[in-house]
Amino acid sequence: MKKQVTLLVVVLSTMLVSVAVADDTALRANCQGLFKAVPQQAPVIADNAHNDAKLLLGHMLYFEPRLSASQLISCQTCHNVGLAGGDLQETSTGHGWQKGPRNAPTTFNAVFNTAQFWDGRAEDLKAQAKGPVQASVEMNNKPENVVKTLKSIPAYVELFAKAFPGASDPVSFDNMAEAIELFEATLITPNDGLDRFMAGDNAALSAEQKAGLELFVNVGCAGCHDGVNLGGTDYFPFGVVEQPGADLLPADDKGRFKVTNTEADAYVFRSPALRNIALTAPYFHSGKVWSLKQAVGVMGSSQLGMELNEKEVAQITSFLEALNGDQPAVVHPVLPASTEATPKPDLSNLATAAH
Ligand code: HEC
Ligand code: HEC
């Protein structure tokens, strides 16, 4: 009798294990059709050939506060590589302590987005990098002044020449942006729970995270948050089913409308990337939501017209927490000294600044 019971237990538990394995296999196959793993190495950028000098230059420029008029603000200020590429602010604070209109999205894995900014107005990282340097609420500088600054520092002149061999005028605003793009492509976060699960490791996600992943796929989150970044791929109204209140969706930021001037694009935004999302609160372009659970709940009602219950929200959130990948270990570069020819920090022009 005892033997039979033991046998029954063994048979039952084997069945349970095989059910779990079958579920894992089906879930994995589902995921592989929707998502792509973050690669282990920086992707090759079609029109931006790698060389070591250019990568070093881009790395230095990302941390270079002299790209800003005040000489206080660098890309790192708002896209802190120790904070998963974000800045902990609702909306960014830039030149002269001014508040910008939108939350800073992470630079991590941004190379995989099909277009940059919440409204997709820059086609790639190269085009993007020229924006913040000139934006009055960000770095408030002029391309001529940036070039003058870089040309006044011999170490930069030398490095630009090495980075852009054969260029007749290597120190240029465009080449600055190209070098930064090459560096940003190295800010990637492989090996998170989802990617390890997709690669065959059933233990990479907990049971709760798998339940959350299943919901994420089945209720339709993955319809807008897919690809390498679980987002960054396409444009959708914030409020497909139900527009969120003005507290989360301020009336004066009409999103992609400003880019296309088409009424159908009012309050349309690019689906944001969700890799490392648990590390980059606050959420939404307005930065008004600090809790990831709350953001998940808002998505259920605004994008899908469904009230997710507490358990479902907890499971999906737990899955999103599994999207924290290996953070890039970035060394702070030593930056060359200014010279007498270097323009001085300029903190004037505050009153007229507007975005
Ligand atoms: C004052 C803060 C601030 C500074 C400085 C700043 N950024 Fe940003 N960055 C932002 C904000 C805010 C956005 C979103 C703006 C929008 O969508 O309209 C953004 C967007 C981006 C994006 C788009 C990411 C995505 O997913 O769409 C990238 C890439 C980026 N910045 C890189 C840079 C680089 C490179 C520099 C330095 C040259 C820089 N930023 C300087 C605040 C800043
Ligand atoms: C119809 C497309 C669509 C669907 C479906 C959708 N989202 Fe979103 N998601 C978006 C857009 C667009 C935004 C950006 C909203 C904004 O701030 O303007 C967003 C923002 C988010 C954010 C905040 C990201 C950040 O960086 O601030 C999270 C988290 C999120 N979605 C998770 C989910 C989850 C979980 C689901 C399923 C319950 C879901 N989304 C369903 C399009 C969608």
Radius of gyration: 23 Å
Indicate the multimeric state. Answer: single chain
Helix fraction bin: 25-40%
Largest sheet: 2 strands, antiparallel
Order of helices and strands: HHHHHHHHHEHEHH
Give the integer mean of the pLDDT values.
93
- Distance between the first and last residues' Cα: 80 Å
Judging by the overall fold, what is the CATH architecture of the largest domain? Orthogonal Bundle
Structure notes:
The longest helix has 33 residues, at 2-34. The protein has 2 domains: 52-184, Cytochrome c-like domain (Cytochrome Bc1 Complex, Chain D, domain 2, Orthogonal Bundle), CATH 1.10.760; 193-321, Cytochrome Bc1 Complex, Chain D, domain 2 (Orthogonal Bundle), CATH 1.10.760. The chain is 38% helix and 2% strand. The protein starts with a helix and ends in a 34-residue tail after the last helix. The radius of gyration is 23 Å and the shape is globular. It is built from 12 helices and 2 strands; from the N terminus they run αααααααααβαβαα. With 355 residues, the protein is mainly alpha-helical. Strands 1-2 form a two-stranded antiparallel sheet. Bound molecules: heme C (2 copies). One heme C binds next to α3 and α4.
